[in-house]
Specification:
Distance between the termini: 22 Å
Radius of gyration: 20 Å
Largest sheet: none
Number of helices: 16
CATH superfamily of the largest domain: Heme oxygenase-like
CATH class of the largest domain: Mainly Alpha
Number of domains: 2
Number of strands: 0
Strand content: under 5%
CATH topology of the largest domain: Heme Oxygenase, Chain A
Shape: globular
Helix content: 55-70%
Length: 343
């Protein structure tokens, strides 16, 4: 994967700098980042330059870019820019979840509080739309959006493994072992998703649709990376994962049924059908054994666990709203390919 096309002054400056050997970034890069922080909090989730710049910074800690020196990952000037950008992402997440009062929940009440948080969420009916109405082209666009995360599925949450212990660690490893196929590459969920992509005629190369997904989609992954790469946000990462698992079975059943309605076979639907079964089990493990036991062992983290859970719902809803709005107006939910725009 190569660096994506820039979307503003920050990502442009990063693209220029990162193709050279590591060096102190020009002061103008940090100035651009500081300017982004001054924007309205909620707008941070839809800020194309901000979200792409953060995604670039975070990707250096995953698989990196073929045209970027690996040493950039630990460059202090780059980490300074990333930290500045993160302040706006955190502000955007806090603003997006401000209606959730998580301060009065005790550690023993975390599983019930997670359930209540999910039950109270009235997110966009994306799964229902994909099940009943979506065209083949729209379903393929949805899968292209999801590929930004699903082709690295489980990786952001795995950052928590060395940071926790006891029952919570055992529970997390149990969940992640399933995500990674129990040691069998063909059963890894990321590989199953690749099969779905190929069935829909999509490019299953890692990062293939990076230039075509908007800020709200990048924000879904960036939120996980923010929580995963900072030990301070470990409780939020666990709450985020819990919501992922607890809200998975029904939507995935609908996604699979939507593909069947469109005439696709069991090979293409396998990814979604697998999640219907696996996440029904993971739901209880995530709520009780993971988050519940972690909160009991670390009582001061209850609020952060629920913050991460609320963030998972908020960023997913933002992406779903984008897709449904674009489709409702008869437009594509993907950005124009940069090479097509140039032509």
């Amino acid at each position: 994967m190569y660096l994506p096309q820039p979307r503003g002054p920050i990502s442009t400056a990063l693209a220029i700098a990162l193709t050279r050997s590591p060096h102190a970034l020009p002061a103008t890069v940090l100035d651009h980042a500081r300017s982004a922080v001054d924007g309205a909090p909620r707008a941070g989730l839809s800020d194309e330059d901000l979200q792409l710049s953060l995604w670039i910074c975070y990707e250096l800690s995953y698989r990196g870019f073929d045209d970027v020196d690996d040493a950039w990952e630990s460059d202090l000037s780059l980490l300074g820019v990333r930290a500045t950008l993160e302040t706006r992402l955190v502000a955007a997440l806090q603003d997006a979840t401000a209606t959730h009062d998580t301060r009065k929940v005790g550690p023993a009440d975390i599983p019930a509080a997670l359930t209540a948080l999910i039950d109270a969420d009235e997110g966009p009916p994306l799964a229902l739309y994909l099940q009943r109405q979506a065209t083949t082209e729209q379903f393929a666009e949805f899968v292209a959006h999801r590929s930004i995360y699903h082709l690295k599925e489980a990786d952001p949450h795995s950052w928590a493994i060395p940071r926790i212990g006891g029952r919570a660690k055992a529970a997390l490893v149990e969940i992640q072992a399933d995500e990674y196929g129990g040691g069998r590459v063909e059963r890894m969920h990321s590989e199953l998703f690749r099969t779905t992509m190929r069935g829909l005629g999509l490019d299953d190369t890692y990062g293939a649709y990076l230039d075509q997904v908007p800020a709200v989609t990048l924000g879904v992954s960036n939120t996980m990376s923010l929580f995963g790469l900072h030990r301070r946000w470990t409780p939020a990462l666990l709450g985020h994962l819990a919501v992922f698992e607890m809200t998975s079975s029904l939507p995935n059943r609908r996604y699979g049924n939507g593909l069947r309605r469109l005439g696709y076979d069991a090979t293409t639907t396998h990814f979604y059908d697998e999640h219907v079964e696996a996440d029904a089990v993971h739901e209880q493990i995530a709520a009780h054994d993971l988050c519940g036991s972690y909160a009991i062992d670390h009582p001061h983290t209850a609020e952060d666990i629920l913050f991460g859970a609320a963030c998972a719902l908020a960023v997913d809803n933002a992406m779903a709203l984008h897709l449904l709005h674009r489709w409702d107006t008869g437009d594509s939910a993907l950005l124009a390919r940069p090479d097509a725009a140039a032509a």
